[in-house]
Specification:
Layout lengths: L17 H20 L5 H8 L9 H24 L1 H20 L4 H29 L2 H32 L3 H21 L14 H12 L2 H30 L8 H26 L1 H25 L6 H27 L6 H24 L7 H21 L10
Length: 414
């Protein structure tokens, strides 16, 4: 299925060209990243408005969103396998819009947390459906290539997200940050209605039944490759969640005190991650998913250990250039693992891509939120908890990959 042309009832409208397809998938899933990253500069004003004294408590705006995001994915997949990708995605974006409107008018921190939870419920749809749509149209190394381009654009968006959040704060209040994401959600819905056909093949459409969903879930969780790579993907996602959760405290306020320069540093690191995804897209056809992701995982873990030793030598406050370079190297390798691990997890379950994407999403997201939350909430005014967490998550990831592949790292793939 390397030629992404829908069949059956969708045949009358072909898919957009490759570049537009990648951009649409990336912006759709990028809505999730923007919903997190462009809010980071607003932590201070929100805390001031609602009288929040504990900086760690502000991280709950991230973790509440991600918990709802993780849990709701199990709903969208089976619905998408029964009713198609487009209507379910548009319905999820509608829920996201409701949560965003609630956030715009939130009058207390507790109400804002509820609004973020509703936002997360809706944001789960883009995560599940972009994976399912891509799997509908591509497989194997081609899917990994597409996912790398998607991840590249997906990561470029957060490069500008904190800066856009800061710009909005300079012109208005934090409520307008939610207005901007509401406008983007509406634009995505219009783009799908105008350009994207249904990609679910008619023979893969299932009736919505508890028995069928249970069977598909069993198929997903009992597949060794899918379960193994979903687990290690959750560990990698935990690295990202820990970084996002504590980035504002590390760069803007408590460790390096960059203030208004925080978005620039955050964006530079994200740009390097995006470049890494571009490299993966260029190399994955030649080298394969296993070799790239396994080598990157080893290098990431070793670089994390080096970063820990350096941080301990500076009592948890290494010079900003040293910390920035070390963290960037680690996250560069991180970006070489995620699209490949995701493709390897999805590869054996193409016939149930919607439900499988849901299960993989729920499982890996909850692992990531729990692991990242534990690490992020250990923040103590130094960078040490973040770096130690990276090392242990990488080490666990290596063990899980070894178990999944029965000790055969970097094996050749089709």
């Amino acid at each position: 299925m390397n030629d992404p042309r829908p069949t059956g009832s969708a045949a009358a409208r072909p898919l957009p060209g490759f570049a537009e397809f990648v951009c649409l998938m990336a912006i759709t899933i990028g809505l999730v990243a923007l919903s997190i990253d462009n809010l980071l500069p607003a932590f201070g004003p929100i805390a001031e408005d609602f009288g929040i004294q504990d900086g760690n408590r502000m991280q709950m705006l991230i973790y509440v969103f991600m918990i709802a995001f993780g849990l709701m994915q199990i709903v969208y997949g089976p619905l998408a396998d029964s009713f198609g990708r487009r209507p379910v995605l548009i319905g999820g974006l509608g829920i996201y819009a409701i949560g965003t409107i609630m956030a715009i008018f939130a009058d207390s921190y507790e109400h804002l947390l509820v609004a973020r939870f509703v936002q997360g419920l809706g944001a789960a749809a883009p995560r599940v459906l972009t994976m399912a749509i891509t799997r509908d149209c591509f497989e194997g190394r081609e899917m990994a290539r597409v996912m790398s381009f998607v991840m590249m654009v997906f990561i470029i968006l957060p490069v500008f997200a904190p800066a856009s959040g800061s710009l909005i704060l300079a012109l208005a209040n934090w409520h307008m940050i939610f207005v901007s994401t509401l406008v983007l959600a509406i634009a995505i819905v219009c783009w799908y209605l105008l350009r994207m056909p249904e990609t679910l093949h008619p023979e893969y459409r299932h009736k919505l039944s508890v028995r069928r969903i249970a069977r598909d879930i069993k198929t997903t969780v009992t597949n060794r490759q899918t379960l193994g790579y979903s687990t290690v993907m959750g560990m990698m996602f935990g690295c990202l969640m820990a970084y996002i959760g504590s980035a504002q405290q590390i760069f803007e306020t408590e460790v390096y005190g960059l203030g208004a320069w925080f978005p620039l540093v955050f964006g530079m690191i994200a740009a390097c991650m995006s470049f890494s995804s571009f490299i993966n897209a260029r190399l994955v056809r030649k080298l394969g998913m296993h070799k790239i992701s396994h080598v990157a995982l080893f290098i990431m873990t070793i670089s994390s250990l080096i970063n820990v030793l350096i941080a301990l030598g500076f009592d948890g406050h290494p010079p900003l250039p040293v910390f920035g370079i070390g963290l960037t190297a680690t996250l560069f390798c991180f970006s070489l693992t995620m699209p490949n691990f995701n493709s390897l997890a999805m590869e054996p379950v193409g016939a149930i891509a919607g439900t499988a994407s849901s299960m993989i999403g729920v499982y890996s997201t909850l692992i990531g939120v729990i692991a990242g939350g534990i690490i992020g909430l250990q923040f103590n005014g130094t960078v040490t908890p973040l770096l130690v967490g990276y090392f242990f998550l990488g080490l666990i990831g290596i063990v899980i990959v070894g178990i999944t592949e029965r000790g055969k790292f970097c094996r050749a793939t089709h």
